[in-house]
Specification:
CATH superfamily: Clavaminate synthase-like
Structural class: alpha+beta
CATH architecture: 4-Layer Sandwich
Strand content: 25-35%
Radius of gyration: 19 Å
CATH topology: Double-stranded beta-helix
Helix content: 10-25%
Order of helices and strands: HEEHEHEEEHHEEEEEHEEEEEH
Strand order of the largest sheet: 1-2-3-13-5-15-4
Number of strands: 16
Length: about 300
């Protein structure tokens, strides 16, 4: 989607870092005409994650905003707002949730394109969320590493939710359907292994990519207020909920929008010959994740 300069100028857009993220003021998310929506969408594609203070949407308006992006997901594992609004998941934590880097629901064949989060109860201090720009994570790699990654695929699974059998295979590097830019598409929460490599090679490469993709110079950290809406592009970001609010309560409500099948480069190699053996060995790793109490839920 595109927007004219005059339409975009109606928004007060305040970039937060050199990597990603912007705060937007002077907009009512419940009253966007077609031109304003196009301008907002273009701004979102540019900054990857947008924050809108002082919105306080009711459940119907929250779902309606999500539907402007596409079809909302009904998350299979996280508690819902109520029977009338199953599109809204509620994450209610005291003293901190699971502070793990991730991209939402990559174990789905069609991972979400966007998430629309509203802060309902915010601790007096702490509870920030950090986002990283996965375009930059890919583009700043050396050319030989980029060429290697362009021909690889990875298995993503729902083991952190107790369902390691729910899996999907995605390219390690995906092409954004709107911008055409390429980004890393692996994360330490849901990515199990790289299909074309032996286990030791996959583990070593993934650990490097996880650390690399989480670098501070790719990040934006945001301090929430009650009623703030945050919308991020799940196709080219990761995020991390900072669990530093001790005995305080933090409640968020989120609508997530179903995305497309990730597209990337054509795989250059067949699955590794001992892939079946690798899968058996990886079950122990999956079970260890299930047994970790920190993996019972994923916070935003």
């Amino acid at each position: 989607m595109t927007a004219t300069a005059s339409t975009r100028a109606e928004f007060d857009v305040r970039p937060l870092t050199g990597a990603c993220g912007a705060e937007v003021r002077g907009v009512d998310l419940t009253a966007l005409d077609a031109a304003a929506w196009d301008a907002l969408y273009a701004t979102w594609l540019e900054h990857l994650v947008l924050f809108f203070p002082d919105q306080a949407l009711d459940p119907d308006a929250h779902v309606a905003l999500g539907r402007r992006f596409g079809e909302p997901e009904i998350h299979p594992y996280i508690p819902k707002h109520d029977d009338e609004h199953p599109e809204i998941v509620v994450i209610d934590t005291v003293g901190g949730g699971v502070d793990v880097w991730h991209t939402d629901v990559t174990f789905s064949p069609t991972p979400p394109m966007a998430s629309v989060l509203q802060m309902i109860v915010n601790p007096p201090r702490g509870g920030d969320t950090i986002f990283t720009n996965q375009y930059l994570a890919y583009e700043m790699l050396s050319q030989p590493i980029r060429e290697l990654l362009d021909g690889l695929t990875a298995v993503h699974h729902a083991a952190p939710f107790g369902h390691p059998e729910q899996q999907a295979i995605h390219p390690v590097v995906r092409t954004h359907p709107d911008t055409g830019r390429r980004s890393l598409f692996v994360n330490r929460t849901f990515t199990s292994h790289i299909v074309e490599l032996r286990r030791s090679e996959s583990d070593a490469l993934l650990q490097y990519l996880y650390s690399w993709s989480e670098r501070p110079d790719f990040q934006c950290r945001y301090r929430w207020d009650v009623g703030t809406i945050g919308i991020w592009d799940n196709r080219c970001t990761q995020h991390y909920a900072v669990a530093d609010y001790r005995d305080e309560r933090r409640v968020i409500e989120r609508v997530t929008v179903i995305g497309d099948v990730p597209e990337g480069g054509t795989p250059k190699w067949e699955p590794f010959a001992t892939h079946a053996v690798y899968q058996q060995g990886n079950l122990a790793k999956m079970r260890s994740i299930e047994a970790d109490p920190r993996a019972n839920s994923i916070s935003k």
